[in-house]
Description:
alpha+beta, Ribosomal Protein S4 Delta 41, Chain A, domain 1, Structural Genomics Hypothetical 15.5 Kd Protein In mrcA-pckA Intergenic Region, Chain A, 3 domains, 5-stranded antiparallel beta sheet
Amino acid sequence: xxxYRGPVCxxxxxxxxxxxxxxxxxxxxxxxxEKRGYVPGQHGKEGQFRRSRDSDYNRQLRAKQKARRVYGxxxxxxxxxxxxxxxxxxxxxxxxxxxLEARLDNVVYxxxxxxxxxxxxxxxxxxxxxxxxxRTDVPSYILKPGDEIAVRQGSLRRPYFKELKEAGEDRGAPxxxxxxxxxxxxxxxxxxxxQEIDANLNEQLIVEFYSR
Length: 212
């Protein structure tokens, strides 16, 4: 399974805004975006004062790259998701975001069991979650309405999940998910509406990028 292994704060700086890829660290003074909010690279600091190229292609590319980085998806997989969204009924852009939201690692993050999607991918990959009663270690697994997610019984004894359960809820779950904090479980009750997808993304520009 390939994934981005470089510094994630560099990705936020490239997009010119916080993508909250490190969870609570992004809200602290330690966030490197607060110290170096300019574009990375040799001429990044001086380049922030230059007029950026605001062409249609550049805006479309940046919208697509930001969505990829928010959800931690590489280009080949992202393009495949777009192909699936294109075949579904309805708005292609919304379909794409719903597919990304339905990934297992994103659902674990949305349920509030991790501070970031990267942490959710790590826990899923190590087999700490069941989907419909079966151990699932594939972060890109696409969930459907009616699917149930739960921390495995053996994993509930681990310090991380014990502390998580004792700490109580610190982030609300969206309306398309039901959460049982006592059991550290959840259920997908439907597809997310556009207003329930809180990422600051422009799906129309992504569709325009792939429609060129």
